[in-house]
Amino acid sequence: MRNIKISPSILSADFSKLGSEIKNLENAGADLIHIDVMDGHFVPNITIGPEVVSKLRKYTSLPFDVHLMISPVDNFIRQFAEAGANIITIHPEATKDLPNSINKIKSYNKKAGVSLNPKTPIDEVVPILNEIDLVLIMSVNPGFGGQKFIKSTLEKVKELRKIIDSKKLKTQIEIDGGINFENAKMAKEAGVEILVSGTTIFKENEGNLKKNIELLRAG
């Protein structure tokens, strides 16, 4: 089994005390902090902007795994890079020129990711796999936390895993959406290396963050 990393989504955290929530996640063994940025336009929800990300940066040394669900995304790459993002992941549908947007992210010395919605084919990323650091497979339709996992998205993971391995690339596969203790195992078997989870980490086992992170990683 691959080395599995856990990237808790703060979408499920208590927004009135995000700083301490992030500290608690670090102490509980999280590998990254997943930050969902939504604009109410590209997806039907609004979350946080670069200023909040900048304020949160002082609470942890963990990498900020920032998922931009905003359009047009190019207008905000610089702001989130300067706010402290370590990984910036964007959607092909949110830019007119995906390779150019990837280059823009890299120009700020950040890791670049591309996210695929359930209906977005892997063809969007296959030609540029050697240019990006990760592919984020959405296993729900983006916009809200707590949705039910779409099992068919694991086929994308399997296809990507074969291509990445055959080309000996270092591109990582991340999955986000309805991840729990049961389907996390299926995701890992399919070839995922980074699990994003919000509801399961914050709500299961009476909110025992450390236990939930360990169960996701080991299950």
Structure description:
The protein is α/β, with parallel strands linked by helices. The chain has one domain: TIM Barrel. Helices cover 33% and strands 18% of the residues. The protein has an eight-stranded parallel beta sheet with strand order 1-8-7-6-5-4-3-2. Helix 2 (50-56) packs parallel to helix 3. It is globular and about 45 Å long. The mean pLDDT is 96.
Poorly predicted regions are: none
Q: Can you tell me the overall shape?
A: globular
CATH architecture assignment:
Alpha-Beta Barrel
CATH homologous superfamily caption:
Aldolase class I
CATH first level: Alpha Beta
Side-by-side strand order of the widest sheet: 1-8-7-6-5-4-3-2
What Rg is obtained from the alpha carbons, in whole angstroms? 16 Å
CATH topology: TIM Barrel
Structural class: alpha/beta
Helix-strand topology string: EHEHEHEHEEHEHEHH
- Indicate the percent of residues in helices: 25-40%
Short note summarizing the structure:
With 219 residues, this protein is of the alpha/beta class. The chain contains eight helices and eight strands.
